[in-house]
Amino acid sequence: MKKYKKLITNRIVVTALLLIIQAVWMVVFLLRLSSYSVWINTAFSVLSILMVLYIIGKDECSAYKIAWIILILCLPLFGGLMYLFWGNKNPSKKMRKRLNEEHHRLVKGFQNDETPIREMRAMDERASGISIYLKNASDYSLYKNTDTKYYPIGELMFRDMLEDLEKAQYYIFLEYFIISEGTMWNRIMEVLERKVSQGVDVRLIYDDMGCVALLPRGFDRYMESKGIKCMAFNPVVPFFAMVMNHRDHRKILVIDGHTAYTGGINLSDEYINIKSRFGHWKDTGIRLHGEGVWNFTLMFLEMWNSYRKEEGKLEEYKPRIHHPAPFTGRGYVQPFSDTPLDNETVAENVYIQILNQAKHYCYIFTPYLIVDNEMKLALSLAARRGVDVRIVTPGIPDKPIVFRLTRSNYSPLLKAGVKIYEYTPGFIHAKSYVCDDEFAVVGTINMDYRSLYLHFECGTFMYQTDAVMELKKDAIATIKKSRQVFLKDCRTGILGGLFDAVLRIFAPLF
């Protein structure tokens, strides 16, 4: 009986049921309404035509527009109304207003020192071009004097996270898409409670949709009762919000302003291979120590202060305040944020610039390969001009349909000379680029439409840091463990090809 009661009260079950009820109600209502009058039926059709014209005129992803146009043409009766309810991929006015106002308020805290970019320009015009673009597009600056450490696996990063958390004296900021109760979270929680008792300011942001099936109801209130300031980002209200886009997909841990962790690793046991869901879980992350951590602190404070105002001056959180000794570190780092508020695909543009400027190789880890024509073209052109482009995707999928969609994109890339590998031991969740022993990006950004267009994401662009070569070494080792995919492996037959084509058309709507 308890098992069924738990199932009935589970938030994900309730959410799914409410969504189904609402969708069915809308379809029945529209069908009944259209049956009363030819005029009403005609009005729906005219609305669909107007929506198609409106979509064509919008300045957004062409693949997204094509998907909606085809859907409206297939469902002329109420396709236009569907777009009105579900087609808007822009954040709500309230969310946009809050976050934009806080971003503009914090801009004064962004570094204005031009020394790092001048030094980089003198060394490499390619790298400085990417850095200047990031500064102009996201406001986040380039830094030196930052030590970088790369983690090829979640277990190693978790070990160091615990050690650094134990050293915290002033504040701890955590921002994660997924938190799941288990060994990993319980050990972190033990440290956080102890640090709160020592007077450390501990703040936690988690994405409500990412945790809807993993955390109990009222988790944020429970954290507050423990002295941990907590916020659930964009709470799920299914009956009133049919579209639950714009999730906080970032993974950020900041300790005392001078140490930060990021990458694909969430706070859940599968990320450190204590729990096995899809074979061996391969993920990557980095640790920053030094001046570059300031960008991550600003990212967290922007999200936090947009919804919860805190007393205190911005200067109190800077890296050198709680670490008076000089920072050291090889190379340059530029942590950046990509949001749906800037009307620009910052992360995708960085990926494309790296591919366009690559001379020798570019190795890529991604759990999903669901990309638009611009990204396909960049990958293909790089391969065709002799760059060794290699992509590693999962060998064991977490979502069968998404895995099928990922594989449906293999063929044109393979024909262009891109090499694709599937990670045989299990699931690869890493989101990493490494190029020419010089550039690298490690972050939270998948190569799919949701990450590139809809979610709040973060990444770290690195130039000639220690982590660049560590990532290359890991990429080579990972490729050796993976199965190479060839064109003959992509044959699906006529029906399979048609099914893949449909998946690719509607991929931007997933």
Automatic annotation (TrEMBL):
Compartments reported by the entry: Cell membrane
Entry EC number(s): 2.7.8.-
Transmembrane annotation, as ranges: 12-32, 38-56, 68-86
Origin superkingdom: Bacteria
InterPro entries the record matches: Cardiolipin_synthase, CLS_N, PLD-like_dom, PLipase_D/transphosphatidylase
Keywords: Cell membrane, Lipid biosynthesis, Lipid metabolism, Membrane, Phospholipid biosynthesis, Phospholipid metabolism, Repeat, Transferase, Transmembrane, Transmembrane helix
Record domain PLD phosphodiesterase: where: 244-271, 424-451
A GO cellular component entry from the record: plasma membrane
GO biological process: cardiolipin biosynthetic process
A Pfam family annotated for this UniProt entry: PLDc_2
Membrane topology qualifier: Multi-pass membrane protein
Cell membrane keyword on record: yes
Major subcellular site: membrane
MF annotations from Gene Ontology: cardiolipin synthase activity
Protein name according to UniProt: Cardiolipin synthase
Organism: Fusibacillus kribbianus
